[in-house]
User: Fold these one by one.
Assistant:
Number 1:
Amino acid sequence: MQKTNRNCSLFISEDGGSEELLVVLKGEIDHHSAVWVRTEIDEKIMRYRPSRTVMDLSGISFMDSSGIGLIMGRHTRMQAVGGLLVVREPNERIMKIFELAGLTRIVSVERESRKRRGRA
Amino acid sequence: MKEKEQKRSYSTECYNEMKLRLPSLSVNEGMARAAVAAFCAQLDPTPSELADIKCAVSEAVTNCIVHAYRDTVGIIYISVKLCRGGLVRIEIKDKGCGIEDVELARTPLYTTDSAGERSGMGFTVMESFCDKVRVFSGCKKGTTVTLFKFVKGKE
C-alpha cells in the first residue's frame, strides 16, 4: 500500500501477515506529516498485531523532533501488542537527533550500509 | 577570517533581511523552513549548516502551531536577518498564549503532551543546532524565539 501526503510518502507491506510489518517512509517528517503517518501505521499495527514493525527511514531527507515522538509513540504501541519496533537506516542527521533524545538506548536501530555518510 | 571567528559578536550590522508571515497551519511548516533555507543559501552554507537551520526553524514554527495557537489559528511572523561576520538571526514570533515557565519549557524531554506523541525535544534541538537561542514570552501576549547561527559556509 502506497500513500502520499504532500512532502511525505508511506509504503506499508501487508504481505508479511502477523510476523513483520514493513513501513517504508520517504520525504520529510515534521509535525504535519507525523500526525498522518502515525494514524496510518497504528491502524495496521492494531489490525495485524505484528511481532515486529520495521520503520525504514533510508528515504527520509528531513526530520525534526516530531520524528522522535513518532518513533517513541510507535515503540510504546508495539510494546502494548507484545512486539518490537525496529528503525532501519536513519541517516547521520537523523542519528544526531536520536542521540540528543537518547532514543538509541530505547529503540533498536539497524544500520547496515554506512555509505550514506557524508550525504546525510 | 580568523579575526571574525574570534570575535563572534551576536549584534553585528544587518545587511539583508527577509520577512514572512504565515497562518499557523501545520501544512505551512515545510514552507517556512524551506523559505528560510532558500534565503540563507546566498551565504553558501554547508549541507550540515543548512540542515541545522531548517531543523531549528521547523521546531520553532511547530511550537507556534502546537502550543501558542493551540485551539486557534493565528499569524506566525518570521524575520531572517543576515548580519556581518556570517551571523544569521532568525526571529519567530507569535501572538499566542505565551509560555508560563520558559526555563521549564526549555528542559530536555519536558512536554505538556500526556499521550506520548511529542518528545519534548523542540527547544533542545534548537539549542543544539544553533549557537544561541533567546526566548521572550509573556502570558497571553505571545512568544518570540530568536535563533542565532554562525554560517561559515563552504571553505
Number 2:
Amino acid sequence: MTDQVDNNSLDRAAVIEIVVAGVREALVLASPEAETTELTEETRLIGAGAVLDSLGLVTAVLEIEQRLADEHDLVVVLADERAMSQKHSPFRSVGALTDYVLRLAAENTHA
Amino acid sequence: MPEAAVPVALVTGARKGIGRYLAEHLLARGYQVEGCSRGPADWEAEGYRHHELDVADEGAVKALFAEIQKRQGRLDVLVNNAGVASMNHVLLTPDATAARLLGTNFHGTFLMCREAAKVMRRRKYGRIVNVSTIAVPMQLEGESLYAASKGAVETFTRVFAREVADFGITCNIVGPTPIETDLIRNVPKDKIDGILQRLAIKRLGRFEDVANVIDFFVRPESDYVTGQVIYLGGVS
C-alpha cells in the first residue's frame, strides 16, 4: 500500500519515537497536561487501562501515518483489514503498534 | 512543510463534463485545482494539475493525497464528482455492472473522503461535497443500482459528517437533476421528459446550478452546515 520504498532509515527506535509522538499528540489535544504523561512500549492504547478514548485512537493513528509519510516517505494504512481482524490487535499497545508498523514497512520495501 | 498561499481544491472525474466545469469554476474563484480521472485530461489550465487514477484503487488514492500533502501542504475542498451510471431493468443488469457502479460511486467516494479528511484535519479545516442524484428520492425505474450506489453515498455522508465534525470538516451533498452530459446520453428522450415533468422546476439542470450549490457548501461561512442534501429542480 505505497508508492514509496524509501524507508531504510526506519529502525525500531525511530518507529517507537513516531508512535509515541502520535499518541502524545492525541493525548495533548484532549488534555494539555498530557505533555508529561509517561509513554512506554507497554502503554495500553485500547481496552482496559487504555490511555486513549476512541477519538483519541483515531487521532493517534492518523498522526502516526502522517509522520511516517512526512519523515520517511512511507505511505501506509495502519487500520487495514489485517490489523482490524487480528485476534491480538496491533493497536493494543505502543510496542505492538511499533511492531506492526515495522512489518508494513518491511513488506513495502520488498514489494 | 510548504503550504500553498491560495486554497487548494480536488475535483474527481475532472476530465470532462461537469467535473471539468467545476474544476474551471474553482480555478476562476482563485483555487489551485487538482483533478483526476481514469484517463488523461484533454484540457489544461494554469493552476490545474491532472492525475490519472481509479478512485476505487486504495493505493492510487493514498499516493494522490500523499503527493498533494507534500506539494501543496493543504487541501481545502474536495468535490467527489466521479461517477458512472447504468440505466437498465434490474433483471437485465449484469453482476459486473453492479460491482462497477458501487466501486466508483460508493467505494471511490469513501476512499476519497477518508484520505481527504486525513489531510484536511491537519489544518482543522475542510469542505467536502459529494454528488448524488435525484434518482435517490424519486426512486427512478431503470436506475436501481445507480440510485442505490448514490443512496449509499448519502447515508455514508451523513454519518461521516458527524465523525469528522470535530476536525473542522464539513461534508454535504448536491443531488442534480438530469443534465446534458455523457451520463444521460443513452437515456431515451421520453424518459428524460417524464422525469422533468415530475420536477417542481421543469427543465434540464445546468452545470451552473450544481456549481451554485457547491459554492454555498464550500464557503468558509458554511461551517455550521454539514450532512445535508440539496436536490436541484425542487425535488425533495
